[in-house]
Specification:
The structure holds 2 protein chains of 2 kinds. Chain A contains 22 helices and 10 strands. By secondary structure, chain A is α/β, with parallel strands linked by helices. In chain A, the strands form 3 sheets. Chain A has a 4-stranded parallel sheet. In chain A, strands 6-5-7-8 form a 4-stranded parallel sheet. Chain A starts with 8 loop residues before the first helix and ends with a strand. Chain B is α/β, with parallel strands linked by helices. Chain B is about 30% helix and about 20% strand. A 5-stranded parallel sheet of chain B has the order 11-2-1-15-20, covered by helices on one side. Chain B has a 4-stranded parallel sheet with strand order 8-7-9-10, with helices on both faces. Chain B starts with a strand and ends in a 6-residue tail after the last helix. Classes of the chains: A alpha/beta, B alpha/beta.
């Protein structure tokens, strides 16, 4: 008994009843005049857009952060965020893409290059002179919370080094780590592998590319399409074989499931198979829990933990499974954020002209986090750029929910971000 | 498993969810988007007209007693409406959003955004001071540059109805430094004490002794009572709000008050979750599925309440051929068979338009029934604008109906969900 609610981005335009609920919920329009709001840049301006036109009727759409809160609140199912993303791509086609945006879109390449010489790369990126130059020359905000390359090797290096120790099992799961885990935060990947193996699963980490989201956000659709094609080639076979593909970067899993196929019009059988095989890690763990297959012999973690389900996690429309599962950990007093957005929206808040907007958008969340204490040792969030932004906005370290789960199983040290010795 | 899954986040769904949560049930609310309260003037209209008569109803609760089945009010009874109103009023007063009724169970008559007399039973205190039965003269103040706000039109129309009224304009620059602002942005802006100070002084300059001041309903969102108090002190006049076009700040205040109460009971309101399928076991609904970024998400509950609204709210829809369909459970609809029968030939026909009286048939316990008056599913209830045999827009009865039917349906399902006492 299934109705279908699927409608194309273009057709959904006709469902707009101009009620303005999206504009009243938009976290960007709330803090700046530069973005008039989703209704204007989305369904209204859309009526003046057509494929291949040389000038855009609305350049303010560049100030849409792509957070998708508009989609979440729209009562009639208009795909506003997708309209805006396509409009940005149209501007990119007709007017070219600034070097900065090309660079910010190339997360995978930057990660890979920097990780050959991480100490040098970190020095090169994070010293005041280069940040000053990056701001003046490139338009990358001096204060923006850019990541640090891992100086202890990439997640891939660790997987290779520990191959002999990895669990072999009939129960298998595929892990999509994303670029941030690969090059900046390998400890998220280690915690994930430790948890999955603790549950008795063999973890397969196949070759994989960037999900393409940074490029989609910056309007560089052809390059994103190439990435998605590669990911389909690498991963859809596992999905076809019935293996779950889980990811810890919630924006990557959302892109594989929905953003890439919808924005790029890739709806063939292989793309659809991949979409249906991908899970956000906690979405999948909640399934295990509901089937009684998730051990809950957790160690107590005594602390107050402000948790923010990021926009890209909420855009999965699966509720807040990380919140539900972390609440099973004894002693852990998880406080749910109802803030709309942290502001960073991937690469949006890195840009000089948008940095202030991103910080103003995030103010509600930063206040929420600090108001839960003191003492607050950590906040938690499922998305890496949001964690970095939350740390930047509050000065309080932020962790992925899987780090808490790993710690509760006794597999992980939350402060050091290292695996327990036995693992 | 949940005790209750509510589908729809308008007044019917939220009242039912809150009633059930107060009775100790575990409840979740899912909705395609933000609820109809964002479109509502924030008043609780019980009954303003009883078509085809076009004389206004002065004593709505007394008139309800005379209504015959199948009108949904005849199923709730006037006493239940009275009890529901008191229930809501008590909670909103505790939450700092006091609602006021006219003396002697009469309707309040309030100015509409076009200057018509609008019948409401309960109104936020800030609107009730605009009651047109009062004889003190009115100064309507608007803001030049605010969209969809026409003080001169309001004053002109009211004065034709023997109200002593005049209009004055201030620049929108007096209350915002944005180039473009909707009602929500203005309301949030007025939470800044400096802006209020300035506006208060301007109002004192404009107002004549003995006048009360009507302003667009943008006087604060989360700190509304404070904003009103301060403006009254500064201006030395009684101040009231006149609703705006959507997004409606008074409606959002009501939504937020109910949302906070529900959160206090641990109830989640999940926006962006559209119900697209369901499964049955015997004569019961076993689960409801919602659309996600990939595979559907299943919600299991002991009881289900459908409160998705009427043809305007999206509770039912039609295909291009004019076949109407209830969108979640495909329930039988009492509706015109042919598209040509949706509307009468006269737009203002005193009997109303049949399509706006269409809806789901329920029994005395608010369970949807088939043609033989048997419940379609043993654990399904329905409430609000979705119900057949009312014409809420013409009757000005939408909120009263939603509240009373939501409460009655909740009472029925609470009994059904109650775990049998163990001996």
């Amino acid at each position: 008994m299934h109705a279908t609610s699927w409608q194309s981005v273009d057709h959904s335009l006709d469902a707009c009843i101009k009620c303005n609920i999206c504009t009243s919920a938009c976290p960007v329009a709330a803090v700046t005049d530069l973005f008039p709001g989703p209704k204007y840049s989305g369904p209204q301006a859309q009526r003046y857009r057509e494929n291949g036109q040389l000038t855009s009727p609305d350049h303010a759409v560049d100030y849409c952060s792509g957070c998708r809160v508009c989609n979440e609140v729209c009562p009639t199912g208009v795909k506003i965020a997708e309209m805006n993303a396509r409009a940005r791509a149209q501007i990119a086609v007709s007017e070219g893409i600034p070097l900065r945006n090309r660079l910010l879109g190339r997360n995978e390449l930057l990660g890979k290059v920097g990780s050959y010489v991480p100490n040098l790369a970190n020095f090169g990126l994070h010293n005041p002179v280069s940040r000053f130059l990056a701001e003046k020359v490139m338009g990358i905000a001096r204060e923006a919370p850019l990541p640090h390359w891992s100086v202890n090797g990439s997640f891939g290096d660790w997987m290779r080094k520990t191959r002999a120790d990895r669990l072999q099992s009939d129960k298998k799961v595929v892990y999509f780590h994303g670029c941030a885990t690969m090059y900046y935060e390998p400890f998220i990947g280690k915690a994930t592998v430790a948890v999955l193996e603790h549950l008795g699963y063999e973890v397969i980490v196949p070759p994989q590319n960037c999900c393409g989201l940074p490029m989609l956000s910056n309007g560089e659709f052809p390059a994103a399409k190439s990435y998605h094609q590669h990911n389909i080639a690498h991963l859809s076979g596992y999905a076809r074989a019935g293996l779950p593909i889980v990811g810890t970067s919630t924006s990557c899993t959302l892109t594989l499931k929905e953003e890439a196929p919808e924005l790029l019009d890739m709806h063939d059988e292989a793309a659809q198979t991949l979409r249906m095989g991908v899970w956000d890690l906690f979405e999948w763990l909640r399934e295990l829990y509901e089937q009684g297959e998730l051990p809950t012999d957790f160690r107590s973690i005594e602390m107050i933990l402000p948790y923010h389900a990021p926009c890209q996690q909420r855009a999965h429309r699966v509720g807040k499974p990380a919140l539900e599962l972390m609440r099973l950990i004894p002693g852990l007093d998880v406080r749910e954020s109802h803030a709309a957005c942290c502001g960073i929206a991937g690469t949006y808040g890195y840009k000089t002209e948008k940095y202030r907007i991103a910080m103003d958008v995030g103010a509600d969340l930063f206040n929420f986090v600090t108001e839960q204490g003191p003492p607050i040792n950590f906040s938690a969030c499922d998305s890496e750029t949001c964690r970095w932004q939350m740390e930047h906005g509050t000065g309080i370290p932020s962790r992925h929910p899987v780090e808490f789960l790993a710690a509760a199983y006794g597999l992980y040290d939350l402060a050091q971000r290292t695996l327990a010795p036995a693992v | 498993m949940l005790d209750l899954l509510v589908i729809g986040a308008g007044l019917a769904g939220l009242s039912a969810a809150l009633s059930a949560a107060e009775a100790g049930l575990s409840v979740r609310v899912i909705a395609k988007g933000m609820g109809a309260l964002y479109w509502s003037a924030g008043t609780i209209d019980v009954l303003g007209y009883l078509p085809p008569a076009d004389t206004p109803v002065e004593q709505p609760l007394a008139r309800l007693a005379g209504l015959e089945p199948p009108h949904p009010y005849a199923l709730t009874g006037a006493d239940e409406v009275r009890a529901s109103l008191a229930w809501l009023q008590a909670r909103l007063a505790e939450d700092g959003l006091p609602y006021v009724a006219a003396p002697d169970e009469a309707n309040l008559w309030l100015p509409s955004p076009a200057g018509a007399k609008r019948p409401a039973y309960l109104a936020p205190a800030a609107q009730s001071a605009g009651a047109l039965r009062r004889t003190d003269p009115i100064l309507i103040v608007g803001f030049l540059g605010m969209r969809d706000s026409f003080p001169a039109l309001i004053a002109d129309n009211l004065s034709k109805q023997d109200v002593w009224v005049r209009a004055q304009m201030l620049s929108i620059g007096e209350i915002t430094n944005r180039r473009d602002a909707n009602s929500v942005h203005l309301a949030q802006g007025l939470e800044d004490p400096r802006l209020r100070q300035h506006l208060g002084k301007e109002l004192r300059r404009l107002v004549s002794p003995g006048e009360r001041i009507g302003l667009p309903a943008v006087l604060g969102l989360d700190h509304h009572a404070e904003v009103i108090d301060e403006l009254q002190t500064l201006s030395g006049a009684l101040i009231f709000e006149i609703p705006t076009l959507p997004p409606s700040v008074p409606g959002m205040r009501l939504y937020r008050a109910l949302r906070e109460r529900l959160r206090g009971h641990g109830v989640r309101i999940e926006a962006g979750m559209e119900a697209i399928g369901f499964g049955t076991e015997g004569d019961r609904i076993a689960w409801v599925e919602t659309e996600t970024s990939a595979r559907p998400l299943r919600h299991h509950a002991a009881t289900y309440l459908l409160a998705t609204g009427g043809i305007l709210g999206g509770g039912f829809t039609s295909d291009p051929a004019g076949n109407l369909r209830e969108v979640v459970f495909n329930l039988p609809l009492n509706a015109p068979q042919e598209r040509s029968a949706w509307f009468r030939s006269e737009f203002l026909d005193p009997r109303g338009q049949p399509i706006f009286q269409a809806g789901v048939e329920v029994n005395a316990s608010f369970q949807p029934v088939d043609g033989q008056d048997h419940p379609v599913y043993a654990n399904l209830w329905a409430a609000g604008g979705l119900l057949a045999h009312a014409d809420p827009i013409r009757e000005r009865s939408l909120e009263g109906l939603s509240l009373a039917t939501g409460r009655r349906a909740a009472q029925a399902l609470i009994k059904a969900a109650a775990v049998p006492a163990t001996p």
